[in-house]
Design brief:
Radius of gyration: 26 Å
Structural class: alpha+beta
Shape: globular
Number of helices: 18
Strand content: 5-15%
Strand order of the largest sheet: 7-8-15
Largest sheet: 3 strands, antiparallel
Length: 780
């Protein structure tokens, strides 16, 4: 048989098999009850995470157009990312107090933060109770931050008796001015992570760890005598398995398309990086897919609550080029030594070869690593400098400024050119990852202002992509549950009680309705289906129809006005939520200045196929942007909606929810069993699955045991890839106060396991009332 005939037959055979596979996959499998085997669990969409990722790949972008060719650049990218993530010198420090903040400072225990002291925010995200219809909702509600702490003040220590924060689950007080305040016995405070002191940013100094900052009086985080470290307005989620999410942060503002500048990705149409091309510097608009981790990474280092000096209300903020000047530029012939304040194990799984152990730091520089990783056009333009005379600082809640820079490109001075390193050969490069070019900025007379080189101007690009590459390795996929799914063998960590708990999870507990798929969250990259499953229709808690952003739900943890979550705004003032964006443009005729993700893929009928969402003229099963939604669905259920957390290692990530208001898993289960909180107040946006479940004590106990079985032993003992450099974090909020030293751990891990929040038993209910009931009109 000729080769051509063989190829044809092979092609036809493959085509037939592909068609049969497609037909088979399109047939929905009826879920099996009760679950007894991994095959039964598979009918519910559950799967061994390791198997799923091996088959489908770990989410992440193709970076070949940014990186130099060869494995050395990938290896160096990982080294750069892990070093930057743990680098305490990235934080402002200086007059703000020691220790300075690293990204890892709030993610040091199973990827999260379990410190109990000075970890309260008084709810600075609250808005007025002036909801405006079903489309606008709270979008234009006036900010109404609560500056008061109750029952504990700043720098005090949380105890188990403080949890849960709400004791009267359906009561709020509305003042005449539209302010919602907690009812007696309730608190709207948030358990989160402390960061920096309130200070004005002055400048960074090349090769110096500490920035020059000026102390300011803090009217909130103070006892009247001294300032304390400020605390973020949302609880710190774990970075472990964060790569599985479509968008990041609780409100999803860290976009899955990285723009190289800030967290907002495609929602900031003006964001640009700079590239040296054909002898000129041009501004480039980039959108790097599957890169929510990179978008998230570039937010905290500029935050005046987390890592940076700055007073955004006065147009004062640190910028990424200022960070670049600190970590890349020489002073007295020396550059900043990476991790110079921290020890790194010689057995570190990524940084071991670069470790100076037993001394501190690494035996390289950040400049060398960037040059080793990235193509030359992103960091070298010897003849040019960038001058920044001013920065436009926009306060975008929660507590992170968006800094808009418009650098002028000017000729480098002879002195600047003479100080530049020797010319190196240009690497062969593939075509750029570019959506559009702009006209090269003109070279002008030398204005006054801070001067930066190309590497410094593009610091956010390098930082985001490098930290993302490191965080992509932080995958916990070897839990007792995953092992059982893989082998079907029961063990002491996953046996009959855990299987009973799994059955509660998929059936009576309704947990799987939001925590679906191998990732155990509907907010995953997989569930987003390449942006085709972003907007969904749903019947809400008040039995009205609405569209919402898949994976984001209002579950009644707080009154909606206390934190709008997905109902918040982006940098242009447009809604964060795709569903509200579509209704703004379609119904209110308000232009959305960027593509609406998922806007063309709204299902034409509800999941039960009982309700038409639109007239599907082309019969493709989708409501495209030119097909108007039926009036019943011209409603956005996004206010108060938060990203659905993934559940692996949940035992170690307390306190729980976006406000950190529950201390143990048993308290969380009790919250769901009794129908949540504030079900009357939140009803227009409340997820319909938030209702009384009627679980028995035995079912609650088994459900908690199943959740505990989602803990990966490698995380508990910090074995590779969860090993880390040394870290020094603040023990309380006092300036130059006591610290906690977290010793370096190599790839073989630590001897003793890390502990959960307050070292609590996950089954402990504490003082929580197990008999409360959240009633609403739908119960009558």
């Amino acid at each position: 048989m000729k080769n051509s005939t063989k190829k044809l037959l092979s092609f036809l055979f493959g085509l037939i098999i592909g068609m049969l596979t497609s037909v088979t996959s399109a047939v929905e499998v009826e879920p099996t009850f009760p679950i007894q085997t991994p095959a039964d669990a598979d009918t519910h969409g559950l799967e061994d995470l390791r198997k799923a990722l091996k088959r489908d790949g770990v989410p992440g972008p193709n970076l070949n157009k940014f990186l130099k060719n060869g494995p050395d650049s990938r290896k160096a990218l990982l080294e750069l990312g892990k070093a930057l993530f743990h680098e305490m010198q990235i934080g402002s420090g200086g007059n703000a107090g020691i220790p300075s903040q690293a990204c890892a400072s709030c993610h040091f225990s199973a990827g999260a933060d379990i410190r109990p002291t000075n970890q309260l925010n008084p709810d600075l995200l609250r808005v007025k109770d002036n909801r405006n219809g079903d489309i606008i909702g709270f979008h234009n509600a006036n900010a109404d931050p609560d500056p008061t702490f109750a029952p504990k003040g700043p720098n005090q220590t949380l105890a188990f008796a403080d949890f849960p924060f709400v004791k009267n689950p359906n009561k709020v007080k509305r003042l005449d001015n539209g302010t919602i305040v907690p009812a007696d016995g309730n608190s709207n405070d948030v358990a989160s992570s402390m960061g920096v002191f309130h200070t004005e940013f002055i400048r960074t100094i090349p090769a110096e760890a500490n920035d020059v900052c000026q102390n300011r009086r803090d009217e909130i985080f103070t006892d009247g005598q001294q300032n304390f470290r400020r605390v973020e307005p949302r609880h710190t989620p774990t970075v472990i398995n964060a790569v599985l999410f479509q968008d990041l942060f609780w409100d999803g503002r860290a976009d899955d398309k990285f723009n190289g500048v800030n967290p907002f990705g495609h929602q900031d149409p003006d964001a640009r990086i700079f590239v040296f091309k054909n002898g000129e510097v041009v501004r480039k608009k980039i959108r790097v897919k599957e890169s929510a981790l990179a978008s998230q990474a570039v937010g905290p280092p500029l935050s005046d609550f987390e890592m940076s000096c700055g007073v955004p209300a006065e147009n004062n903020a640190r910028t990424w080029p200022e960070i670049g000047r600190k970590i890349f530029r020489k002073k007295d012939g020396q550059r900043l030594k990476p991790l110079a304040l921290q020890k790194v194990s010689k057995n570190d799984s990524i940084l071991g070869e670069l470790s100076n152990a037993p001394s501190k730091g690494l035996n390289t520089t950040y400049r060398k690593l960037v040059k080793k990783v990235f193509r030359r056009k992103y960091w070298r333009a010897t003849e040019f400098r960038f001058i920044i005379t001013d920065a436009d600082v926009v306060e975008v809640q929660p507590a992170r400024p968006v800094v808009n820079l418009t650098p002028q490109v000017v000729s480098a001075t002879p002195l600047e050119i003479s100080l530049t390193e020797d010319e190196i050969p240009v690497d062969p490069e593939a075509e750029d990852v570019v959506i559009e070019d702009t006209v090269p900025p003109s070279v002008t007379e030398q204005p006054q202002g801070t001067r930066f080189n190309l590497m410094e101007i593009n610091t956010a690009l390098f930082f985001g992509l490098a930290v993302q590459e490191y965080q992509r390795t932080l995958i916990a996929d070897n839990t007792p549950f995953d092992k059982w799914m893989r082998t079907g063998k029961k063990t002491s960590k996953f046996g009959k009680p855990e299987i009973r708990g799994l059955n509660v999870f998929v059936d009576k507990g309704k947990c799987i309705n939001c925590h679906g798929g191998p990732e155990l969250t509907n907010a995953s990259v997989r569930n987003a289906q390449n942006n085709k499953n972003i907007i969904e229709p749903m019947v809400m808690g008040n039995n009205d129809f609405a569209i919402y952003d898949n994976g984001f739900y209002n579950i009644g943890v707080t009154p909606t006005v206390e934190d709008l979550g997905r109902g918040g705004k982006g940098p242009t003032g447009a809604p964060l939520a795709s569903s509200r964006q579509r209704l703004f443009e379609e119904v209110l005729d308000i232009d959305i200045p960027f593509n609406i993700q998922g806007g063309n893929h709204v299902p034409a009928v509800t999941e039960d196929e009982n309700e038409l969402v639109c007239n599907d003229r082309n019969n493709n099963g989708r409501c495209e942007l030119n097909e108007r939604l039926h009036p019943n669905f011209q409603r956005a259920a996004v206010d108060g909606a938060m990203k659905t957390a993934q559940l692996r290692n949940i035992q170690l990530n307390g306190p729980y929810f976006h406000n950190g208001a529950f201390a143990t898993l048993r308290q969380v289960v009790e919250f769901y069993d009794n129908g949540g909180y504030f079900c009357d107040f939140n009803q227009p946006d409340l997820d319909p699955d938030i209702q009384r479940l009627g679980l028995t004590d035995a079912e609650k106990s088994d459900l908690v045991k199943f959740l505990v079985s989602l803990t990966d032993r490698r995380v508990t003992f910090e074995k590779a890839p969860f090993d880390h450099p040394e870290l020094i974090v603040a023990k309380n909020g006092v300036r130059n106060g006591p610290t906690i030293r977290i010793p370096p751990v190599g790839k073989k891990g630590r001897k003793n396991p890390i502990k959960p929040f307050l070292n609590l038993n996950p089954q402990d209910l504490g003082k929580m009332d197990a008999n409360f009931e959240c009633r609403s009109d739908r119960d009558n």
